Amino acid sequence: MQHQAHFKQKMADMRAEFDACPKELKAESDARYYEVKMDNIFWQAGITLS
Predict the structure, then answer these.
(1) I need a surface site. Which of 23, 33, 36, 42 has the fewest CB within 10 A?
(2) Domain boundaries along the sequence of the chain
């Protein structure tokens, strides 16, 4: 499952990027940040969440 591995890597990168954010920024943008990132990742993967 090449695709699965790529997805897992994307998730790990996203997590690391998020962890690098300032704490106060995290608190207010946590949910929205993930929402947008997930949309992008799924879109790139050719999956649509509706």
Answers:
(1) 23
(2) 2-44
